[in-house]
PKD domain-containing protein
Amino acid sequence: MKTNFKYMIAAVLVTFFAVMACKKTEYSFGSIKTPQDLVINVNIQGQDANNPTGDGSGIVTISAQATNALQYKIYFGNGDSVMTYSGTATYKYTTIDTNTYTITVNAIGTGGAITTLSKQIRVLYKFQIPADIMAALTNGTSKNWIIASDTVGHFGVGPSTSFFPDWYQAQPNEKPACAYGSVITFTQAGSNTITMNDNNNGSSFLIAAATAFYGQSGGDGCYPIATGGTKTLGFGTANSGSNSTNSTGIQFTVPGNGIIGFGTGGTTYEILSLTSNVMWLRNIGSDGNAWYQIFRAQ
């Protein structure tokens, strides 16, 4: 009898554990609530009636709000995105010039329910001139530069694949006086703006290959050239293939005929090196070669 009782107890226990093993724990998210009334507000830094695309910093603050939203996924329209619980994110666009972006926000509710809204914006980004370049060129206000005529290589030329005047370096004062008559003034005209004026006294030295570019004809020599007064320079990252061992990596473009003291037909100048006293520039001339100029602060 005792043995049968033991078997009965064992059978009951086996049945109990078998039943317990088959039971599943059930979880509940509660009621699923889809976010509603999603709105997107965008503040472009420096935006006003005169600057509808901002101040050129590229900085934008996006604020999204929706009822029943637990978090937000913000897509900036250029491949970047961020997840935020507050619905607010500040972002800096860094593609040069004015560009259009489609901002998309996913408001996420319980159970992963999503409401989506998009908004298109136009944002201006100007290349940010490095502080050391700004200071060295302008001294914070205005600064005059002249050709370093007493320096070997103040003019030079080499192949476009090189960053040194391998073919020719001018000897001190070997060119006519017009090659050394320009006073180049760089002026800080704003927190991120530099203007330039080339006062050439009406005459500049041109290489033969570039005379047609300036509306002239003939060989190397002095020509009457109007430099165009004060111009706002366009700065950017150098696209020459240079590196940190042979360049600052910064270039600027001069509007109009682009001349700075010595006319090669080039309008974009890469700053190979720059101190408070000496500047070395490189440009690609009308002949396809790399031309060099050394300036010193006046």
Observations:
- The domain at 36-125 is CATH 2.60.40.10 (Immunoglobulin-like).
- Helices lie at 2-22, 131-138.
- The mean pLDDT is 91.
